[in-house]
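Hi Y.,

Following your request, here is the sequence exactly as I used it, all 211 residues.
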Amino acid sequence: MWPRADARLLEFRLYYEAGGNLFTDGYLHQIGMSAARKSKDDLAGEIVGRLARRHSTAVVLFHHAVAERLGLGPTDHKCLDLLRERGSITGTELAAITGLTTGAITGVVARLEQAGYVRRKSDLHDGRKQILYPALERSPIQDVIGPLRQDVTALLENFDARQLSAIAEFLTRSTDLIYRHVALLRAQTLYDANSDQRDVHTVSDLSKEAK
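Below is the corresponding structure, written out as tokens. Let me know if you'd prefer a different format.
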């Protein structure tokens, strides 16, 4: 059943306000024709530039919308995603992966637990540790993202097995690269913060010596 007309109008209005375009088959065909005339370097530049940026923005906006639909914050939603991906995880591990403080993770876990998405169990080997598990066998996230999954599945019907293999390889390897750069950026941030602290101590020591 289609959503009510006013709901559809609101959906399209929000879509255009977000800077989106309606990707009809004709528009996709135009992109394909344009791509055929471009060199490999031009295409690579467009993929890592405009197309990747636009895709990333759309994904972020979609996950914000999913979180809103579930009554969660975006951070809570992605932490739940990480938990679902791994099956079980400790709060400390979740903090290390996300870069959030342990205090922030405590708040995230409390909200997810209160909403019925997460349950805790004490570690059998260390009673001080709490292991987090998904509380539901089937997450309500599946119902929310179901329509998008169906649309993407239909879109993939336009590609042959070789193209799908290339898409799968690109997603796998680019995801690994993103995780690597997440770690790199966090390491650089920590290093800079420690450097600033060392500089402050050095200035303070020099001031004391001058007196």
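Residues 159-211 form one domain.

Thanks again,
Q.
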